[in-house]
Structures are given as structure tokens and as C-alpha cells.
Specification:
mainly beta, Jelly Rolls, 2 domains, 8% helix, disordered N terminus
Length: 327
């Protein structure tokens, strides 16, 4: 066997070292999220994601204003979940928090910095700032994972993104608490509706139906509500999923049958959201959310509102027969 000389060993060691430091042996980086006091609050692990997935999200408009695109917010199990693209000039609020008493929540999810350094921060009522995620020193197109308990003092706080001309993808959740309410705006850049809503909502109706719900085809499911004060406008935010032939969702006066709002969809709808603007609601009237499904395998509808003037009614003031006779 041929012996390897001293210089040859050094040469091979050099090749091995270069290979380890290059992409062929690169290990995931680790960073830590550090609170205002300098204590380590969580460990963040980064890993590279495909660049072609995020290349299309770069937009020079991000240099001129702060906005979200492809933004969604929803309740998922016991979490208030937000996702989308954030484009920063300097700062963009993700959610406002209102705590009736001191509480603790958990912030989970991931942040994918695309361009520039970006941070996710929490500002407490007394002005103290805690870092939830920070991309400084992390390569673009990496993923920052977040799983951090957060003490929330009583009062009003804010969770927001900050960065100088930065873009990022995010999918971030906040655990729901009896003492904490989250406020968010419909601020997708493609959405002109800038109304503010809360999570959990003050009013919520859920309808979940399967092919075994009713033998009739089409079948009908209804939920009733009323308002405690006359309202010029009421917004109901609607989230729906469906697998079937056709679904018709109506909101109507339960006595006269007058339709205030309607949407029709066909085939499979994975998850869709829309807002129903209801006009001139009166306290002495009863309203119905009615779903009519044809060849439905599965359908789920959630209607929510941040108004404290809308209530669900368990039993109708008017029976179906009385309503039909009145028409």
C-alpha cells in the first residue's frame, strides 16, 4: 500500500475542510430571539426554502409603502392564524391586543425573509418591546420558526413587523385566551375594505354539513339572528368550504323572504372568504342565514361579526309553515 506523505495529508485535510464549509456540508443556522431584557426567549432554526416560490413576491412598491398582499386571518382550532406577504417601507402592524387582565399567550409559526432584514416585535402597554423574530444575519429565502410564550400585561399592546425596505412571507398564529382580544384590519393591498375586526369575534355562527345531513336533495340548513339596535350597516365576514355540485348561501328577512345578500358557488371550494354588507337591519325583525346544497359531500360555513348588537336566535319567532303562508 502506498503511504501518504505529510504534505499529502495536509492537502487532503484542506479539501475536507473546504468541503465542510461549503454547500456540500452546510448545516442549518441557529439564531435566538432575544427579549428587551436580553434574556433568550426562544430558539429559531433556519433552513433554506426554494427561491422560485418567493421570487414572484418581490415588488418595488414595497419601497414606497407598508402593506400586506395575499393576506388571510382566521380562527384555526384554538389559534388566531394570520398569513400572507408583508412589504415594508418601515413598519406594519400585524395585530393589536387588548387584555382585560394579565395573561399569557403563545406565538407560533414561521417567517420567511425574502429581501432585507425584518423583525417581528411585541410592544406592551408600558412601551416595553420584546423581539419575537429577527432575520438579522440570516440569509434571504430562509425560514425562521417561532414558538414563544409571551406575557401580556393588562391594557393595549401591538404586534408588528419592522424593517427597512424589507419583504417576507409569514404564517403566524396567536393562542386564544379568555382575557385577550386581537384586533386586525382587512388591509390586503387588493382590498379597499379597511374595517377593523376582532378575534375571537363577538358573534359567530357555524354550519357544518355532510352528505348524511339530510336525505333531501337539495337540502336546506338555516341559522337565525336578530339585532338589538337598528343598524344602517352590518358586516358579516364569511368563510366557507364545500365539496359538491352547488351551494347557495343567502341572508334574508325570515318573515318576508326578502334576500339581503346571496352567493353561489359550484364544485370544490377549498377555503374562501367574503364579506356580506347588510343594510337597514331593524330590531323587530328576524333574519336567517340559509344554505341550500345540491349533491353535497361536505360543506362548512362560518359567519362572524365584531358587532355587539347581533345575537343568534335558537328558536324562530315564525315557523316555516307560517312563513310560507305569509308569502
Amino acid at each position: 500500500m502506498k503511504k501518504i506523505g505529510y504534505k499529502s495529508r495536509l492537502y487532503l485535510l484542506g479539501i475536507t475542510t473546504v468541503c465542510f464549509l461549503s454547500a456540500c456540508g452546510q448545516q442549518p443556522q441557529k439564531e435566538t430571539a432575544v427579549g428587551e431584557t436580553g434574556t433568550v426567549t426562544d430558539t429559531i432554526v433556519t433552513d433554506t426554502i426554494a427561491t422560485d416560490t418567493i421570487a414572484a413576491t418581490n415588488d418595488t412598491t414595497a419601497r414606497e409603502e407598508n402593506y400586506f398582499s395575499s393576506y388571510t386571518s382566521r380562527q384555526k382550532d384554538e389559534t388566531y392564524q394570520t398569513s400572507g406577504n408583508v412589504h415594508l417601507k418601515d413598519k406594519k402592524t400585524l395585530t393589536m391586543l387588548e387584555a382585560a387582565d394579565d395573561a399569557q399567550i403563545t406565538v407560533t409559526g414561521k417567517l420567511n425573509p425574502i429581501e432585507g432584514d425584518i423583525s417581528l416585535l411585541y410592544q406592551a402597554p408600558d412601551g416595553t418591546v420584546t423581539t419575537l423574530a429577527d432575520s438579522s444575519g440570516i440569509a434571504d429565502n430562509s425560514t425562521i420558526f417561532i414558538n414563544q410564550p409571551l406575557d401580556i400585561p393588562a391594557g393595549n399592546g401591538e404586534i408588528y413587523f419592522t424593517g427597512n425596505c424589507a419583504d417576507a412571507l409569514f404564517d403566524i398564529g396567536f393562542s386564544l385566551s379568555d382575557n385577550v382580544r386581537y384586533y386586525y384590519s382587512n388591509t390586503d393591498n387588493s382590498n379597499t375594505d379597511n374595517s377593523t375586526n376582532s378575534m375571537p369575534p363577538r358573534f359567530e355562527i357555524n354550519m357544518e354539513l355532510t352528505e348524511n345531513y339530510d336525505d333531501a336533495d337539495p337540502f336546506i340548513d338555516e341559522r337565525l339572528f336578530y339585532v338589538t339596535k337598528d343598524m344602517d350597516t352590518l358586516q358579516l365576514n364569511l368563510l366557507y368550504q364545500m365539496k359538491g355540485e352547488e351551494g347557495i348561501l343567502e341572508i334574508a328577512d325570515n318573515k318576508t323572504g326578502d334576500v339581503l345578500w346571496m352567493s353561489i358557488w359550484h364544485g370544490t371550494v377549498d377555503t374562501a372568504t367574503t364579506a356580506a354588507q347588510l343594510k337597514n337591519l331593524e330590531t323587530d325583525k328576524e333574519y336567517v342565514i340559509r344554505f341550500t346544497g345540491t349533491k353535497i359531500e361536505y360543506a362548512a360555513i362560518t359567519a362572524v361579526s365584531d358587532s355587539d348588537k347581533i345575537q343568534e336566535r335558537e328558536r324562530p319567532e315564525q315557523t316555516v309553515e307560517e312563513r310560507q303562508n305569509a308569502l
